[in-house]
Design a protein that fits this description.
The protein has 415 residues and is an alpha+beta fold. 54% of the residues lie in helices and 19% in strands. A hairpin with a 4-residue loop joins strand 2 and strand 3.
């Protein structure tokens, strides 16, 4: 055998071990701790990535990226819309009327946030139409039709074809005082975003019906905007505001998604970073196990090391033996951790656990979605693998140097 491969051959022989089959107990402990650390990191990171992805793809794409609204209702909003189209960053525009109301069915009453929109225009700024469980979103433009969230429909005990009443306070008083405005609507669609906050409080009607209910005539509250990049909306909306003010006869203001969901998104990102940092300590513990295993092995193999040195093996080659041994444990442990981590993540996201997890999330009622998402990303996997290999291989250097610095004469004298 070539002398260059001798340290590798000896390291593999030490890795196998003779006393207890394939692996000694202490070697097995080093493997398990490394695999466990990597697997836990992959599982938790995939789940956190899943929450981040679902927040962006579902909730943040249902609400507008940004809105430009008037301090008073906007007249001749068509001119404002045309002015906004001059902004090349704007990819979608939808006029809206938004108001709070009471919604009443035969069995229940609930508070609701009414959005009056034009369906064809609303599709350019929101994906709400993609999450219609039953019915059709476009039908709100016909007659007196309404689309409800799934949780709201369940609370009201209504389904497609049922009738509900909307009641709004009338701002115009008569000699007898204030009376609510009321109108009967047909339920023509039920959407299910997966967000308790959206599905339980939101309803859509046509812009025309919203105008009649609120007494705004041909006026609107504002225009919702969509940009190419969601995260650029907080900056681009102010540029769009300049375009809108050119044609507006009322004072305008701007608002973006970060006003409502920004703190939640930032909390998820911060939690994701902190969890990754804390769970990385498991790999640090695994590295200490590898160091402990190598130091124990060096102590047991002192005589063999001394013999190898007297036979002409250099300190560098002794160093390589234990560097290769620790690196092999690091690579195999990391590889097994990746396999177990991906497998358990896929198992958690399978239909086997879906029903139980969905029930738990809905019961807790504290999350912005009521199911258990995951998102296995290649870049995250690579970071976890590199972090694991760096920590574990770096930790091997100390025991390998310790082995290379042993003095064979003192060892053989004591033997």
């Amino acid at each position: 055998m070539s002398q260059n491969y001798t340290p590798l051959y000896i390291a593999l022989r030490y890795l196998k071990g003779r006393k207890s089959g394939f692996l000694s107990f202490i070697s097995s402990l080093a493997f398990v701790s490394t695999s466990l650390g990597v697997a836990v990191l992959i599982i938790v990171s995939s789940v956190m990535n899943g929450f981040e992805k679902e927040l962006k793809d579902r909730v943040l794409n249902v609400i507008p990226h940004a809105s430009i609204y008037g301090l008073n209702p906007i007249d001749e909003w068509g001119k404002v819309e045309q002015a906004l189209l001059e902004d090349k960053n704007v990819k979608g525009i939808s006029p809206y009327i938004e108001t709070e109301a009471l919604i009443k069915s035969n069995s229940s009453v609930a508070g609701v946030l009414i959005n009056g929109v034009i369906p064809s225009k609303d599709k350019s700024v929101s994906v709400i139409h993609e999450y219609i469980d039953v019915g059709a979103f476009e039908k709100i433009s016909l007659d007196n039709n309404i689309v409800l969230g799934k949780l709201l429909a369940r609370k009201l005990n209504v389904d497609i074809g049922d009738k509900i009443s909307l009641m709004l306070p009338d701002s115009n008083s008569s000699f007898a005082g204030y009376f609510p405005r009321s109108k009967v609507f047909n339920v023509t669609g039920i959407f299910n975003i997966g967000s308790k906050e959206v599905d339980e409080t939101l309803a859509y009607i046509s812009l025309e019906n919203a105008s009649k209910l609120t007494g705004l005539s041909n006026q609107i509250h504002g225009l919702r905007l969509k940009y190419e990049d969601l995260f650029e909306a907080p900056y681009l909306v102010w540029q769009s505001l300049i375009y809108a003010e050119k044609e507006s006869n009322v004072l305008l203001n701007a608002e973006d998604w970060s006003y409502t969901y920004g703190p939640l998104f930032e909390a998820i990102m911060m939690e994701k970073s902190l969890v990754f940092l804390l769970l990385s300590l498991i790999i640090v513990v695994a590295a200490f196990n590898i160091v402990s295993m190598l130091m124990t092995m060096i102590n047991e193999k002192r005589g063999a090391i001394a013999i190898l040195q007297t036979m002409g093996m250099t300190d560098k080659e002794i160093f390589k033996i234990f560097l290769y041994l620790g690196s092999a444990i690091a690579f195999i442990g990391t590889f097994l951790g990746v396999i177990f981590g991906i497998g358990i993540t896929l198992l958690i996201g399978s239909s086997l656990f879906e029903t139980q997890l969905n029930s738990l999330m809905e019961y807790l009622g504290t999350y912005f979605i009521s199911y258990f998402p995951y998102d296995i990303r290649i870049d995250t996997l690579l970071i976890i693998i590199l972090v694991s290999l760096f920590i574990t291989i770096f930790s091997v250097i100390f025991p390998a140097r310790t082995a290379s610095k042993l003095h064979p004469i003192e060892i053989l004298r004591n033997e």
